[in-house]
Each structure stands twice: as C-alpha cells, then as structure tokens.
Amino acid sequence: MATIKYIGRTTDFRGKTLWEIVGNLKNFGVGRVVVRSMFERYPEPSFMKILNVEALPDEEPARKVRVTVEKTFRGRKYPNPVQIESVSYKADYRLLSKHEEAAYCKFTERQEKIFPREIDLPPLLKEFVARETGKPAPMVPIKLQAGRENRYRLAKEGEQPTVEVTMSIGKPASPSLYANCEL
C-alpha cells in the first residue's frame, strides 16, 4: 500500500475564487450574495451583496476581479460600498443560492459585552503590590482598545458587568503539587 505525501503549503480556504463565481453568472452576479468561508466561523452572519464587477488585467498566475459589494461583517453592515480586489483570487468564496439568501442574511443583533472597570492582579504580583502599598486587595484598571468591530465596553459607574474576568491559574495539570497551597 502506497502512502501519499503532500508537498507545498496548505490553506484553510474552501470554495472558489470570485473570478470563477461571477464569470458563470448572468449579469456577472450583480444582486447576488457571496459568502467568504473564512468568516463563517463567527456566530453572526458575514456576507457580501455584489453591486458591480470589473475585470482586471490578467496577471499570471492569479486572475483577479474588482468587485464592489455591500459588505456585512459579523452582523454589522458597512455604511459605504467596499471594493474587493486584492483578495479576489483566493479560493475562499461561495455563492448563496437564492432560496438561502433570506435566511442567511437575516440580521441578528449581537449582544454588547460589558467588562468591569478594574480586575485583580495576578496572584504573585498581587502579593508584592499589597506589601508595597499596604492595600489588602489591589486592583488594576482595564483599558480596552477601540475598534470598528468592537462590541464591548467598560462598565459605567454603578453598572453591572456582563463579563467576569478572573485571575487564576485554572485547573492545574498536577493538583497534588498544589495540595498545601492557598489559591
């Protein structure tokens, strides 16, 4: 029995290139919905509705196409049309059938995560800071990085956080090593 040995780089892409999809559609797929397989890992729907298609000069070996789309990423629709050009050669797109479009493109509002304003320090650092400052339970403020796709924020004064952030070592691989320690 012969064994198979694969040579070369592997990818996580599943599907066809945009060139292959729009080239086989009437009116180059204007009005149809395309999904990038890489974005299907998110619970919220991510899809693109084709508005315009332009062929680009043929460059070996990739055939690229410039597609203007109405993009929805993780349930949030972009305010302006987006041009897809540099990633159109990737074999990671699939066309939604017309009967799938309504169910797939249904908007579901994503819940906003509210984080506490301060969290505990890691156990060892907590001991050092407590000895230095004299505070029994020192806390450190959280700083969240703002971004376009963020659906989280810090709790306002007196507001109850929806996310609990704890500092612990988790479940140890060998609990017997920690038998006589306070965690």
UniProtKB/TrEMBL annotation:
Transmembrane regions: none
Pfam annotation, one family: MRP-S34
One Gene Ontology cellular component: mitochondrion
GO function term, MF aspect, one: structural constituent of ribosome
PANTHER family assigned: 28S RIBOSOMAL PROTEIN S34, MITOCHONDRIAL, SMALL RIBOSOMAL SUBUNIT PROTEIN MS34
Name this protein carries in UniProt: 28S ribosomal protein S34, mitochondrial
Biological source species: Anopheles farauti
Classification lineage: Eukaryota, Metazoa, Ecdysozoa, Arthropoda, Hexapoda
